[in-house]
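Worked example

This section walks through a single chain of length 92. The input is the sequence exactly as stored; nothing has been trimmed or padded.
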Amino acid sequence: MMQGFTFEHDGRTYDCTVERRTAPPAGWWWWFAVSRDQQRYAPFEVAAGDTQGSVRARITAYYENLLVVRARPPEPRFRFSRPGRPPAQAKS
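Given that input, the structure is written out below as tokens.
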């Protein structure tokens, strides 16, 4: 199994580690942290054929896509509510 490593891409430093994930789905996962981002991510399970280059490519693609999604304006959400009471019928 590969050990962790650090690399730079587009002015960001990525720190990648292999850690056991206990929450489902359990197993060995690639965790990474990015400079200037407080969140850690675990988007990929460790695969038998992983190389430093393949992991680096997957992680940078994942994170750059995440930045594109974050930059989008929020999608409007529809508010669902209970229908109002029907109008009172006039008594004859």
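What to look for: The chain has a mean pLDDT of 89.
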